Structure formats: C-alpha cells, structure tokens
Amino acid sequence: MKLKSIIVEDEETSRAILRNYLKKYCPNVDVLGEASNVEEALILIRNHDLDVVFLDVEMPYGNAFDLLDKVGDVDFETIFVTAYNHYAIEALNAHASYYLMKPISIDELIKAVDYVTEIKTKEDALQDQVLVPKTNSVSGKITIPQQDGFEVINTSDILYCKADDNYTEIYLNTNKKKLVSKTLKYFEEALSSSSFARVHKSYLVNVNEITKYIKGKGGSVMLSNGKQIMVSASKKSDLLSYFK
Length: 244
Description:
The protein contains 7 helices and 17 strands. It is elongated and about 65 Å long.
C-alpha cells in the first residue's frame, strides 16, 4: 500500500536525512512535500489527502502540538520525530502512531512505516462497512462486588466499561449503569477470554457491540446504542484485528 506523506521539520539537514531514508528503505512512502514550520505544514495538510505526517516537535513559531490543534480532526497518522524523549506522553495524548528518536534508527523507521501501513490497510478495508467480529460473544458471566454481596451479570449484556479513577462504570445494553470499586485494568483481565478490547486508556468495549469504525486523528468506534468512543492510536491495530 502506498502512503502519501509530508515531512515537517525545521532543520534542512534532518529533512534530507529522513527523505533519503524513506526513499531507500520505505519505498511505499510518497513524500508529497516538506515544511519547516507550522504555517507551511498547515498549507500542505489542507491541500493534500495524507496518510501519514512525519512531525518534528520543536519548530519556529509553534510546535507539533500547536499544529495538531490547528488542524483539528483529520484522518492521517502521525509519526513524531524528535531528539527529546520528554515529549512522549504528550505525543501519546495527541494520538501519535509512533515516536522516533533522533538520530533516526533505520530499523525503527521501517517498523513505524510498517505499523502505519498495516493500520491504513485495515482502515480502508473496514471504512463504511457494518463490522462483523471474527469471534462471537462468549456466553459467560461476571460478578461485580456490592456492599451487601455481589451481583452476577452476563458479559454479553455489557456494552462498554469506562475508567473513573479507581472505579469502573459498566454500561449495559439495558440502559443501566453500574459503578464498581475496581479498576478498568481489573475488568480488562477479567474479560480477557471474552470479546472485549481496550481501545483507550479509559475505555474497554464489547467488540460484538461495535457497528462502525470511523477514521480520524485517533479514530473512533460506534456502538449499537449510538455511543461513539475514541480509539487511541496505540490501541488501533489490536482493535482492528478483531474484524474480518
């Protein structure tokens, strides 16, 4: 699959190195343009239908996060390329697909491009389709603690779980909500044998209740009750692997 891309980097030498690496080691990447600052990058992004943006963090007149804020919700993947590792958390929160450190490792660059290629291939195959999971709902039950004992619920009745500090909100297909004094990590492990996917640091969803995947900066899924939930870039590949 061909990936349409741009390079956003204020140092000409760094742009040349990345451009040459991509040409030699990642021939499926087409570099449509290069930008040295936020304003130049905005023009390129608005004038091209991109699959991936290689993005330096620190630039004149604004940084990578300023650029992403100005762009809004788009359907390209972002590969951060920086000499500073302290931006990793911000990059994760900005739904970065990959985080490359300078000097660029060729092996890591290839891994980053392969990851984005896999994501875009799956997204294109699933876009605008009614999603059919590879696995059916597991007929099982789970217990949730209560002050006077515990309640047994069918795992197939759970639409999604949402983190709330050290508590978890469980949303059921009966329009009921349960607040449980267990972390989302607990339920991720408890439901690991069922068709549940961690799509975000705050959400665990029943894959069988997903009706649509929507491309975007991080992407999102639509559930059978109309609820739309954001998907983290780091969780996207795992989620899409559930579908045919």
